[in-house]
Amino acid sequence: MKTLHALGLILMVSFPASVSLADPCSLSDDLVELNSVSASGGNCIVNVKYSFTLTKNNGNKFAYIHFWLTSNYSAPDYKKGPTKDELGDVLATIALSTDSPVTLLPDYDPDNTVTPLFAGLTVSETDLGGGSFRITVDNIQLIVPGACSGLPDIQADVWASQSNDKETPPVHCVLKGGNVILPVTLARFDGTLLDNAISLSWTTTEQTNSRYFDVERSGDAREFAQVGRVAVRGNSLAVERYQFMDLQPLSGMNYYRLRIVDFDGGSEISRLIAIDNSANSIAFELLGNPASGREIRFLLKNEPASAIHFYNLSGKSLGFSLARTGNEFTLKPKDPLTAGLYLISLQGISTGRRTKKVLVP
């Protein structure tokens, strides 16, 4: 598994099974959610959410998370809490008190020269029963040296102790993270309501080790089911465009997300998009762009044809006539058009103005 470079995406990371050094606790089921990637001052700022399951078999006091670039991973032996020298070139450390409710700690007691991330973080826990708790830390800013020109390769470890010996705490359980590469840079994900269908489209700017996209749909934004699958077109640094047509959308709201599955078995989840397919929902979409034969076809649903206007790029209104078949319209300009871009606008009663650019070849 490896690390991602994209916005609003979620990565499910398959890490090695928990390494239990003793009975007092166990760690499992890491989940990394990527919030954003941005450039700042010549560095790459990777913002993530990190969560894990901690089973407090006999009680637990503290947990610590460390992040490295994989190339700088120091491989601590975890016989005790690692010091600054043992951590090496660590990107970030987070210290937690795991006595419920879990809280962030401003100090890393095994070595007070290590300053853990604290300001701006949020932490929460969910009681899973049986002494197990799901712990989540959000808004983790990892400053990766160098510009975001490549995919940062990041490794994370989490360890825990129930000892009150803060300075040299024994490590009672540890989960060593795998090499995490986020396989797809998803630049855009959109949906459009058509007449009796919903069209989904997305664009990637980089894809590595990815196998396919599962299109998932929900009516309540909680329970999702797969409605389609689209194969990835191999490794690429170029812009790739994908499309999927849901020919049987739900009545009312439709929530969609993409599950991007790589060849290593891991997956990441895109942000949600919502498309309203209610009986009175407005649909306005070009049917072909560039236009064909100087005629412009478009879909219009639940708005009157009189709300359509046609302009050149200078804003001059152009005359036209409309032919209609169901909710599909064909706009025929009254005067010959020169090749170039034109604007077709819907000035709706309840939705305001929606304008689309159309290329006339």
UniProtKB/TrEMBL annotation:
UniProt KW keywords: Signal
Region forming the signal peptide: 1-22
Source species, domain of life: Bacteria
Protein known as: Putative secreted protein (Por secretion system target)
Organism in which the protein naturally occurs: Dyadobacter jiangsuensis
Phylogenetic placement of the source organism: Bacteria, Pseudomonadati, Bacteroidota, Cytophagia, Cytophagales
